[in-house]
Design goal:
Length: 178
């Protein structure tokens, strides 16, 4: 029975892993997927506590075939494991405030340090541009900042430091910068 649970949970984790891969993934999208996964784990734990195994079809089938119900020891182990996964995901989610700084229309200009006065000035220009605000809503953050690179190079650089934390392609394979 525990093997059926492990198979189910790894199937779920594989789905999450696949959502975190691909050319259009950035920290915002990855953060959203991970946050959703954590919420699902919390819901699944509550379901298991009342012996609802809907999210674990292989385990549910095995329990139905055994006709003995979910053994208390296995139930407790599954609950403990789901709690552990929730804690691990929580520890690895990252800084939400840092991601919010990618939304230039939500940044309080007074929080920008005096060591970066030109960034503050450019941010004010950007925040007061209704056409850019409309564009920001209509396209993904990465594309928005690419379109603004010539006009706001320092802001764009800051945004990409947050947006793209690591290179996700191998040099020579799908590499746009040969």
């Amino acid at each position: 029975m525990s093997l059926a649970y492990l198979s189910d949970i790894f199937s779920h984790l594989n789905v999450v892993n696949k959502t975190l891969q691909g050319p259009d993934i950035n920290r915002i999208i990855a953060h959203e997927h991970v946050r959703a996964s954590k919420q699902k784990l919390t819901v699944w734990k509550k379901r298991v506590e009342v012996e609802n195994l809907a999210n674990f079809p292989l385990l549910e089938t095995e329990i139905q075939q055994a006709e003995d119900g979910l053994p208390q020891e296995l139930r407790d182990q599954i609950i403990e494991h789901l709690e552990s996964l929730c804690e691990t995901v929580q520890d690895n989610v990252g800084d939400v405030e840092e991601l919010n700084s990618l939304e230039p229309f939500r940044i309080d200009v007074s929080t920008i340090g005096d060591d970066e006065p030109f960034i503050a000035d450019k941010l004010i220009d950007l925040q007061n541009s209704s056409d850019k605000k409309d564009l920001f809503v209509d396209i993904p953050a990465g594309k928005f900042w690419c379109c603004r690179q010539a006009q706001f190079p320092n802001l764009t650089k800051k945004a990409f430091e947050i947006l793209v934390p690591f290179v996700t392609t191998i040099i020579g394979v799908n590499n746009p910068f040969p």
